[in-house]
Write a structure and sequence with these properties.
Blueprint lengths: L1 H18 L15 E6 L3 E7 L4 E3 L10 E4 L5 E7 L2 E7 L4 E2 L10 E3 L6 E2 L1
C-alpha cells in the first residue's frame, strides 16, 4: 500500500515543481562603467551595453530600435544619429535611466564625445 502512494506523491511533487514557473527576473543592471540599451520599454527585450571610451556602432538588432537605457557610467556618453550630410547627438548623463526613450528610435552609435555632431 505504501508503494502505491509513494509514486503518486512523487509525481505530484514533480508536477507541482514543473508547474511553478519562476517569476520573471528583473533586468540586470549594467556593469560598472557601462550604459546598456534595450529594445523594449522598461529595460526589457534584447540588450547591448557600451563601455567608454571611443565610438561604437550599435548592433543591428538595436539600430534605430532602442526603447530604454540605464547608465552605470561615471561620465556622460552620447547617443549618435548619423543623418544625411550631418549627425546629431543626444546626451546621456552619468547614472541616468530612461524607461521609455523616444530618441532611441534614431540611435546609430554611442560615443564618449559628441563626435562634432549637432545637438539632436
Amino acid at each position: 500500500m505504501f508503494r502505491r502512494l509513494a509514486l503518486p506523491a512523487a509525481l505530484l511533487a514533480a508536477v507541482v515543481t514543473l508547474g511553478t514557473a519562476p517569476a520573471t527576473a528583473a533586468p540586470a543592471a549594467p556593469a560598472a562603467g557601462s550604459v546598456c540599451f534595450w529594445t523594449g520599454a522598461g529595460q526589457h527585450g534584447s540588450s547591448w551595453c557600451y563601455t567608454p571610451p571611443g565610438y561604437t556602432d550599435v548592433p543591428e538588432f538595436l539600430h534605430d530600435k532602442a526603447a530604454s537605457f540605464r547608465s552605470d557610467a561615471d561620465r556622460a556618453v552620447y547617443a549618435i544619429d548619423w543623418a544625411r550630410d550631418t549627425c546629431y547627438h543626444r546626451l546621456i548623463r552619468a547614472h541616468d535611466v530612461a524607461d521609455n526613450w523616444a530618441w532611441g528610435a534614431r540611435m546609430d552609435g554611442v560615443s564618449d564625445t559628441t563626435m562634432g555632431c549637432e545637438v539632436g
